[in-house]
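Page 47, continued from p. 46.
Same chain as before, 210 aa.
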Amino acid sequence: MLLKCGSDCDGVLAQFREPFARFLVGKGYADPELLCCETLPLYGLHHSPHVHFDTWEDELRATIEFGREIGYRHLPVIDGAREGVRYLASRGALVYPVTRRIHSDDNYEKTLQETRDWLREHFGEDVQEPHLVRNGDNKATFCKERELGVFIEDNPDEAKGIAEQCPDTLVVLMDRDYNRTHEILPANVQRGYGWIDSIRTIGRRFGVMV
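Result:
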């Protein structure tokens, strides 16, 4: 059986939070203390007392500004991601990077091309063409269209949405300090403690990997 696996980019393949926080501090949008926070949320930085904007809309604009001025070309790779993706590909799995990198309509193609270039540099032929979710759409749509058997995600809201709309898909929630929630998630969401444990979780479901 051909295994088709979706993977989020930021927080699963690429490190985004720390570079974005450094950008905010450098622009004067946040105090340097933001870089010392032990738990830096994936989104919702506007709730932090160290950030100088108050709304999600302000954070959205700052994220778009990051994409235009800094871009995604030089983000570090998450520990274990290269090896994990290479292992999946070596077992015949098709790995589809799917990302909701925040963009405006006029920099969609720039963001998509930077994502392609970054993936080509770090993952080569081990991944398929990336899919950049357009504003107003969701990852579950892509999951259903490609009939993905697995989706690896770090955002619990995204994981829940994919699991509810794609009940036959195993959603692996990559454990992060910002996604530990007491909310009861759908039964097809399983937590993976790093890439090795996530692959083992996939193997237990599909019986093709260890």
